[in-house]
Amino acid sequence: MSKTYAGVEDLLCDESFLSWYFKTDPRAVRQWEQWIAASPDRLARVEQAVKFLQSLQLEEPLLKTEQITQAESQLLEKIRQAENRFVPSPGLHTASGLHTAPGETGAEGPVETPMVHSMPQRRWWMAAASIIVLAAGIYGSYRWLTPRPELHTAYGEVKENKLPDGTEVVVNADSKIIYSAGWKDGKDREVWLNGEAFFHVSKTPLKSRFIVHTGHFDIIVTGTQFNVVNREDKANIMLKEGSVILRTHEGRELKMVPGDFVEYNADRLEKKLVKNDSVLAWKEHKLIFDNTPVSELVKIIHEHYGVTVQLSGGSIGEKTISGILPNDNLEVLLQALEATADFEVVREGNTILIRQHS
Known about the structure:
Elements: H1 8-12, H2 15-22, H3 26-38, H4 42-55, H5 65-85, E1 105-106, E2 109-110, H6 119-140, E3 150-152, E4 159-162, E5 168-171, E6 176-179, E7 189-200, E8 210-213, E9 217-221, E10 225-231, E11 234-241, E12 244-248, E13 253-256, E14 261-265, E15 268-272, H7 276-280, E16 286-293, H8 294-305, E17 308-312, E18 320-326, H9 330-338, E19 343-348, E20 351-356
Parallel strand pairs: 7-8, 17-20
Antiparallel strand pairs: 1-2, 3-6, 4-5, 5-7, 6-7, 7-10, 8-9, 9-12, 10-11, 11-14, 12-13, 14-15, 16-18, 19-20
């Protein structure tokens, strides 16, 4: 992030910071976690901002419009009162550096006495104005402050669940799904995915849209079956049944039909040919390899189990493997790899070394 956040008010006025706080955008979450970790002195500002946002928690699920209007009017009146306290007295220096007294004129005519604010007060005034907008959004949509339900899996775990509308979802290892609370027919059903999951979306009588948000695109459907991957180094979707519309954050759209596999690469959506069984094998706790490079296997092991795998030898990553291996037991997977007699697996602490069998 290239912005400079000098104070707490800067954080509160930043949309991506709010996305981090409310955990609505996986990309924003990663960026802000990295930003905070990069410099310890940033943590204090973030904690202050978080404390302020937590103080906005409501006891009631909804406020009336009149209450919102009244609160906004009171805050605006306090801002106006604060402004008046900083109107300079006659005789203060103007921005041009000239000293004027009441009724005095300059060479070009009467000199106006400008309103002067100190920088910290001006910054807080700007923050207060922005917080009005923030508060209005918060009060108008209580779901932002309500803890959002979530599903998550650990390394090596695959979990089946049902969402409030009856939609079936299978969540792959090291993945998280956050979804909006209080789903009602006629309103969008929204889900935020970080990781990999398979959705069998239920249709509703009013054909409410089901939207899956990822770091690169949104998936808009009514009722269908599809697999989605949204991880740091890759993002793709495979449509099994029905139809969906992909919409990138830049506004580009792509319609998919059953059997399509679309990958997000270099800011573009690209259709590719894949074997559907291989893509969906993880649901059956399997990994299907068909002349798959060992370098790709290393990435898969890291995604599923969170362990570091190193390859010994410059060309070993180019070697390929074929077959079906389990994806819910790392030891069995490694033993199966050794059983090929082509590879040797060495464990060194938390690191796994794969090298060519001598």
